[in-house]
Amino acid sequence: MTHPVPALSSADPLSGLIASRRPGWTLPQPFFTDPAIHRADLDRVWRTGWLFACHSCELRGPGDYQLVEVDTDSVIVVRGEDGSLRALHNVCRHRGSAICDEPRGHVSKLVCPYHQWAYGLDGRLLAWRGMQPELKKEDFSLRSVHLREVGGLVFIHLAADPSPFDGAEACLAPLLRPQGLLRAKVAKSVDYLVKADWKIVWENNRECYHCDAGHPQYIRANFDHYNSGDTPPLVRTQMEAAVARGEAKWAADGLAPTHRETGMTRFPDAGRGIWYSGNRTPLVEGWVSESMDGRQVAPLMGDYREADVGTLRMRALPNFWNHSSCDHAVTTRLLPAGPQRTAIRVWWLVHEDAVEGRDYELAQLMPFWQLTSDQDWVICERQQRGINSSAYEPGPYSTSKEYNVEGFVRWYLERMKHNA
Amino acid sequence: MTHPVPALSSADPLSGLIASRRPGWTLPQPFFTDPAIHRADLDRVWRTGWLFACHSCELRGPGDYQLVEVDTDSVIVVRGEDGSLRALHNVCRHRGSAICDEPRGHVSKLVCPYHQWAYGLDGRLLAWRGMQPELKKEDFSLRSVHLREVGGLVFIHLAADPSPFDGAEACLAPLLRPQGLLRAKVAKSVDYLVKADWKIVWENNRECYHCDAGHPQYIRANFDHYNSGDTPPLVRTQMEAAVARGEAKWAADGLAPTHRETGMTRFPDAGRGIWYSGNRTPLVEGWVSESMDGRQVAPLMGDYREADVGTLRMRALPNFWNHSSCDHAVTTRLLPAGPQRTAIRVWWLVHEDAVEGRDYELAQLMPFWQLTSDQDWVICERQQRGINSSAYEPGPYSTSKEYNVEGFVRWYLERMKHNA
Amino acid sequence: MTHPVPALSSADPLSGLIASRRPGWTLPQPFFTDPAIHRADLDRVWRTGWLFACHSCELRGPGDYQLVEVDTDSVIVVRGEDGSLRALHNVCRHRGSAICDEPRGHVSKLVCPYHQWAYGLDGRLLAWRGMQPELKKEDFSLRSVHLREVGGLVFIHLAADPSPFDGAEACLAPLLRPQGLLRAKVAKSVDYLVKADWKIVWENNRECYHCDAGHPQYIRANFDHYNSGDTPPLVRTQMEAAVARGEAKWAADGLAPTHRETGMTRFPDAGRGIWYSGNRTPLVEGWVSESMDGRQVAPLMGDYREADVGTLRMRALPNFWNHSSCDHAVTTRLLPAGPQRTAIRVWWLVHEDAVEGRDYELAQLMPFWQLTSDQDWVICERQQRGINSSAYEPGPYSTSKEYNVEGFVRWYLERMKHNA
User: Fold this and answer.
1) Interface confidence (ipTM) of the complex
2) What's the sign of the alpha-carbon dihedral B76, B80, B86, B89?
3) Structure pTM?
4) Using beta carbons and an 8 Å cutoff, which residues of A are at the interface with B?
5) C355 Cβ contact partners less than 8 Å away, ≥ 6 residues apart
6) Is the pLDDT assigned to residue A3 strictly greater than 60?
7) Phi then psi for C157, rounded to 5 degrees?
8) What is the distance in angstroms between the CA of the first residue and the CA of the last residue of chain B?
9) Which of A200, A229, B9, C67 is the most exposed place for a label (fewest CB within 10 A)?
10) CB count, 10 Å around CB of A248?
11) Mutating which of A398, A399, A402, A409 best tests the B interface, going by the most B Cβ atoms within 10 A?
């Protein structure tokens, strides 16, 4: 790979490369191919931001835990005796052994399988044997990881001094409240290993320019693939009717359409450092759920009293997005898995009382987003292959259709500069 | 790996290593093991030379294409509406996605599967949608790759300013004419991934010192494994008879034996920078084809009117050789596939009108060169394993049997110096 | 990986990292994760020390050979015409090809399969063909590797000028004599590829702090898991009785218990550079063999005239340990296999006259150490995973239970400094 790295003008060895990016055009090749950039992405983006970990409903009782693997770090997210969630590094303070092997499970204590050092669910070292008395147990708690929860979503932050979360909470909490993710259950989750840099996955997520050909089932339900410049009058009328319908019906429940135009809502906002957002968006008439035929596929969730509530959409950089319909919620989580590799998990959630086979069928619940996911991962891997070529050079974004991709790139470069 | 790198005497960081090679002896270890040398090989040899891509008969009509993967580059070789072949980088000018997924196929246009930017078979951007009018389509053609065709063989050159091809054309065109590769078809191709540096594969190809033990079936047909110093009088007589027979019989067809001695013809010629050559060589009496029993295994190709035409042999550095008998042709193509890995394809071609099962059987057509290939790849991988040892040190070439290996090494080092 | 590398104070780039290690605490992360440290381990430890290769009984007659793969080097250990063992690099002096492919076998000469250069079993070049007369065969012997044998154990040394072996011989020869490994045979060997640095494997081997939970079958037979501070009076009494029993019964055979306390014998001794040791240790009453139920599982070996001889235990850094009972011996050999990878072979040996199915059953012979091995490799891989975390920081060793782990680390760092 030949790196078009200009002479360095500052202490940051990447500053020249960062500065070489032409606004409105795709990133230079090394951002997608160079292991050193991948390392910098981990240090400057992933280890300085809030990462979606899992849903709090996955950890119902004290001792329920789940592992989250971020790069070489393994983090235990566990519910304590006091009912609150905590995140702890899965590294014994004795010889450094991992403590939990299984990706999820239940424990009464966190006991290292090597020499049985025993930690409480809050990470405090409770018992060891054979250690000299001059050492003090209180110096050997499991190292903790910052954790915040909002409306059933669990986020962690790997840095010692985390960036603010309050803005995200203020934004997402009211949007999440009616969806009832705290009273949800996971119907299914699927893991993917995608051979593409995580930024390629986000760039794919941030535009619906590819939806016409790429997601034939998705565009039947949504208006995202139209933009101000190419929305036919009929579609504009439909969209306006959908918004009006939402305003009329949802008001009684305190809901409101917050995205009122075709095309994707603007996100992220690099200028103001906004890494989270959410909105309630109308669906095409006749669609009450992001299912293959638009019909409800599970019991109503949360506070919903009727099906026609559009979709709640949320996203948080660098690793989370969610589309929630009246009856189910679909979460996507990205985790870096080495250069040109992204580990992706997709969850389908339904009301906690819903019973498979009686209240819902996976064959009806899953295809809409499983197809969309599969289609996107193929696209992302193909783009990575092309970008790896010596012939790759940055290309232009459509200003009408890829404004959010440009927004993502700006946000990313801002992080790279800010955390250099 | 310990690198015996002497102090640098010039701007090229490899110049000391290159200079440390003792003439007549094998290359120092790093040339076979160091990823930095592999990178230099790509930059100084593979990206500065003509590479055999495929046979033009594989792409019969407009829109027929084949991918050639060189290092991280994917090149589309495609026949245009005008009937001529072109080579284009398989990288969309928008977001860099690969365009073609399948290794071969037929297309009417080259449409990027991501956002449907549509290119003509000549690489010109024909259509995009949603892009701002201030951008001009003519600035976004697919990046082209130089292509030359001679007698049915397609070569490409990845550099912007390619080295001359005319000498190769002048040499190979008349030799190729009677073989009729333009009117051939591929009976079969086989792909191999050999765990050895590409230079090890070439060094193996450039001597028949290993043939006695290594290729028991090959030496029944050929005289290569004898050399001036060890050709028994009987064999010398046979060779002379074969040459005389060729001179007598082939003259009417304008053919002539161009290699008249036992042993391999001299190639390459580093002193004069000759990277291609070809010759017509007699086979052992009784052999009219490089088949297991020497008998014809397919209909006559090209202009041949009788079977006894010896073999046409051609080779072009860094990645092509071919042995053609009266009835079939066998091509071998090397492509680098990372340090200590070489991707090799072997093709068997017959007359385009020949019908499998009626005119030829793969079981008769393939074994001679399939065995030879398999035997050589095992040898090459074994040599790579040995060279990886800390105990490896350069050893001496036989001046009577490995003169062409020395010639190859000189040619290679000349390239490495010249393109530093 | 962030490396807490202090400013360099000497010519050795690792000296700062080495000096940063806090005595009594585990090694800093890079020692377990950094490929450059792995390289230094190879150069400073593995290539400067005696390595256990195999058992001499595996190579009974002239021409019997075995390959030992150390890093990228392949070494042929072969018995010569004169009955003595030699070690030779498996690299032909011509083009560097490996000579032997199979991991073990029988040859009359060492003939390179590429061009048939033929070497004697002592490595001298006997025959080549086609080479120019000005080259002399005596300059092209296979490069030899130092080899020493003691009591049926074969050690090799890759350096030109090996470190002393006489101390090891003086220590181990008398201990080995009654065990009769020269008159043994391999009943079974098993190969493992463990995803952990070799030092993690040794640290695991050097303490029995993990045995209570980790090796439930092992602790039924042995006293290792007790230490001076935690041996209950009853166990102390049992140990004393076992020692007294050994003294009384073994004296007639010239044997003696050489480890008379619970807990592990001290090894290694970094201060005096001792890399080998051995001792005869009593087993728990009722146990005469390290088998699942403590009963004899094969005929008596060597000079033993009764079963109750405790266990002979030996170890040699960096790659060997052995536990021998009256009836069988179990050897473990480590070989580095890249960063965070260790290739491990475990051998079970019995008397050479023992016949499987008649005199012993693998199902009785193997489980005790196969379980112990499997349990340890799981532990080691889990520790490697934990150490890879950014949250890993050195932890304290138990002074009463991990004194030998501290001893190993000191020995290792001494090697790293001494051979810088």
Assistant:
1) 0.94
2) negative
3) 0.94
4) 1, 26, 203, 209-210, 212-214, 227, 229-230, 379, 382-383, 385-393, 395-396, 398-401
5) none
6) no
7) -140, 120
8) 23
9) B9
10) 9
11) A398
